[in-house]
Amino acid sequence: MQTVRITVNGTQYEEAVPPRMLLVDFLRERLALTGTHVGCTYEGVCGACTVHLDGEAVKSCMLLAVQADGHAVTTVEGLSSNGDLSVLQQSFREHHGLQCGFCTPGILMNMTDFLARHPEPSDDDIRHGLIGNLCRCTGYVHIVKAVREAAKTLAGGAG
Amino acid sequence: MFPAQIEEYVRPTTVAEALAVNARYDEGDALFIAGGQSLMQALKSRMARPRCLIDLQAIDALKGIEYSDGVRIGAMTRYVDIAADERLRGRNAALRDAAAHVGDRQVRNRGTIGGSCCWNYLASCTPAVVLGLGGRMHLVAADGTRRVVPATEFLIGPLETARRADELLEAVSFAGATDRGGSAYRKWGLVKDALPVVGVCVCVELDAAGRCSAASIALSGLAAGAQLAPAGAALLVGSSGDATTLARAMDAVAAAVEAQSDKWASTAYRQQLIRTLGADVAATAFARATA
Ligand SMILES: Cc1cc2nc3c(=O)[nH]c(=O)nc-3n(C[C@H](O)[C@H](O)[C@H](O)COP(=O)(O)OP(=O)(O)OC[C@H]3O[C@@H](n4cnc5c(N)ncnc54)[C@H](O)[C@@H]3O)c2cc1C
Fold this sequence. Notes:
The complex is a heterodimer. Helix content of chain A is 35%, strand content 16%. By secondary structure, chain A is of the alpha+beta class. Chain A has two domains: 2-77, Beta-grasp domain (Ubiquitin-like (UB roll)), CATH 3.10.20.30; 87-154, [2Fe-2S]-binding domain (DNA polymerase, domain 1), CATH 1.10.150.120. In chain A, strand 1 and strand 2 form a beta hairpin. The mean pLDDT of chain A is 96. By secondary structure, chain B is of the alpha+beta class. Chain B has three domains: 8-55, Uridine Diphospho-n-acetylenolpyruvylglucosamine Reductase, domain 2 (2-Layer Sandwich); 60-175, Uridine Diphospho-n-acetylenolpyruvylglucosamine Reductase, domain 3, CATH 3.30.465; 181-290, Enolase-like, domain 1 (2-Layer Sandwich). Chain B has helices spanning 15-23, 39-44, 79-84, 93-99, 105-108, 113-119, 126-132, 151-154, 230-236, 243-256, 267-290, and strands at 8-10, 30-33, 52-55, 65-67, 70-74, 136-141, 146-150, 155-157, 160-161, 167-175, 181-188, 198-206, 212-220, 227-228. The complex binds flavin-adenine dinucleotide.
């Protein structure tokens, strides 16, 4: 067992964990933050477990909880504030960017990081940015639209 | 899936400390973890069962790209940082081509040049590019001994390198930008940015008259691992990169390689990929050399 201090969605947690515990299992099983999903049973290809590590999108099944010791993690539960959805979440809702919703948390986390780095993305940029997230319902058309509209809203809000 | 029991996890802040922990264990019982984008799969499938993991994330000396006479890329430099560094141009531009299309954003936010070279997976981009650009591997051992090994000797074959168990890879270095050097890399995989079924890297140096004075071609995705294709490269030398020469050179590469046939692609299809991608990559390398 090793004691880790990990800040998740702004709250610091101190927990004793076995070194082999995956970050995704720490989030889901220790902290009961089950918004982070496990899709591909840990091969690291589906992207449903994507979270932010110090603000950057990473797959939480490809990290051990001990590696996140001393770092800040944001999960999908941390995107809204006081019950208000983020601009990207609101856009997914308005533009039907999800069907079954299983892949959605990972997509929201990846695309939140993406929009921070690419404030004016083309559709090609968005599609390229989405490679690390598999969606088996939507065919991605509405997801691309939701991201594009969110980028416009964010640009409008800033300018 | 989750890893087998791990007894110890350490996060040293210096190379010396990392090597000292490694030296406490028998060969293979302690493993360095860089981005974890290959190792975590091996741990979860239990192909690797180390007793100790030595996390390199906090060793700042292993991070970043230095430009002096040449270019030195710290082993812990991530794909996302390589892809974004516009100073990697001309003869080193292929590094950015490869890094920008490894896997996906999340993988590029973690995966490192050092981890990719030390893993040396056959379907991977970085080892072939490092070979094509004449990279040199900077290794340091627990007793402080340093040695520099050319990539041609370091990259032995799939999942095999010349790194000894008591050594850590500190950096990979390349020749600096030249007036008339150019390189490029492109791959083909089953979906965009996937592991390469075939990838081609071309690096050329031109003389003042615009003729090729030195060339190398390296391939990824072949069963024998990242490899150079010297016969094809020799055909580029002396040319100005005209389409006929490029096609002839890539025909020679395709004819000389041993391309496997598997569920992803037949031998003939791999050879065709080498011709098609190769001609395009070579044209880009020549164009960058004259830009
Ligand atoms: C979904 C997905 C898609 C991918 N797509 C591609 C792709 O398109 N192209 C491609 O090339 N790769 C791809 N990869 C693999 C990726 O490139 C890995 O990042 C890379 O192979 C390993 O680098 P790492 O930093 O993650 O190393 P790790 O996985 O942490 O380590 C790999 C090995 O190297 C050793 N090691 C690491 N650093 C050092 C060091 N400094 N000194 C000594 N030993 C060291 C470790 O002990 C381990 O054995 C993909 C991976 C995933 C999960």
